[in-house]
Amino acid sequence: MAISRRKFLNMLTVGSAACLTLLTPITAWSAWASDAFNATQSEDAYKNLLGATETIDSDEVKLKVPKIAENGGAVPVSVKTSMKGVESISLFVKNNPQPLTASFQIPAGTIANVSTRIRLAQTSTVTAVIKANGKLYSKSQEVKVTIGGCGG
Amino acid sequence: MKVKAKVKNNITSVRLLAKHPMETGRRVNKETGEKIPAKYIQELTCEYNGKVVFVAHFGTSVSQNPYLAFSFEGGTKGDSLQLRWNDNTGDVDKTEARIK
Questions:
Q1: Residue from the list B51, B68, B71 with its beta carbon closest to the beta carbon of A116
Q2: A interface residues, B as partner, C-beta within 8 Å
Q3: Is residue B21 within 8 angstroms of chain A, CB to CB?
Q4: What residue in B sits closest to A34 (Cα-Cα)?
Q5: What is the C-alpha separation between A109 and A111, in angstroms, rounded?
Q6: pTM recorded for the entire structure
């Protein structure tokens, strides 16, 4: 089928307009970082999400997660901090097939205190990374996942 | 999506439970031996008064029927919050929750 130049250009315009509408995120916040979420190595996940692999180990990052989890399918985690200027909170599980678990964006006025439930494929270090004032602060803790229903 | 929002001392705390299988894409159907395709929530947002107060991005290792708790400054009793999630297959769920 022959398509005239005019028609072709028209199609392009309509097509790209449709794409733009679809791609424009609902908010001005960064889009879902597929290369970070699909990364299979912690280092790649850090780099793709936060732009760096180095974090400052800080007690200001309060990570609350059980030391022993009987059910690796739903491990309660909460992260909070009293630091100012928090931009985001991210959770990494080192030994999971895809270490980046969740990333929360904290707009001004939202309190840096988030709780959720995550999956652990096996015993692993869980790390919370808080981005505040452009710097990365982290806190890690090991969570043992017991096998069997009796809590080992 | 089940949402509970409560304001106290000018801080609104939100707790929610999104009904979603959160399939990782790595699980195998034991009967057919086939992999169950990935289906998981990628983004969940909460808006109040036209302003985004919270954004969560999830990977596959968030538990089934994700639970979330967060809080933000302000909020008036009786006002509504708009919550929305979308998953990797394009499914969307929206809900409104009244602040109590």
A1: B68
A2: 26-29, 32-33, 37, 73-75, 78, 93, 96-98, 100-107, 109-111, 113-121
A3: no
A4: B59
A5: 6
A6: 0.83
pLDDT tens digits, one per residue of A110-152: 999 999 999 999 999 999 999 999 999 999 999 999 864 444 4
Query: Taking Cα atoms as reference points, which of A130, A141, A140, A139 lies closest to residue A50?
Result: A130
What are the structural domains, with CATH classification, of chain A?
Answer: 38-145 (2.60.40.2470)
Identify from B57, B60, B84, B88 which residue to disrupt to test chain A contact, counting A C-beta atoms within 10 A and taking the largest count: B57
Q: Does domain B2-98 have CATH number 2.60.40.10?
A: yes
What's CA B15's distance to the chain center, in Å?
Answer: 9
Please answer whether residues B35 and B25 qualify as being in contact, where contact means their C-beta atoms are separated by less than 8 angstroms.
Answer: yes
Using a 10 angstrom Cβ sphere, with 0-12 exposed, 13-18 middle and 19 or more buried, the burial of residue A48 is middle
* Predicted ipTM of the assembly: 0.93
SS3 of chain A:
CCCCHHHHHHHHHHHHHHHHHHHCCCCCCCCCCHHHHCCCCHHHHHHHHHCCCCCEECCCCEEECCCEECCCCCEEEEEECCCCCEEEEEEEECCCCCCEEEEEECCCCECCEEEEEECCCCCEEEEEEEEECCEEEEEEEEEEECCCCCCC
Whether pLDDT at B39 is above 60: yes
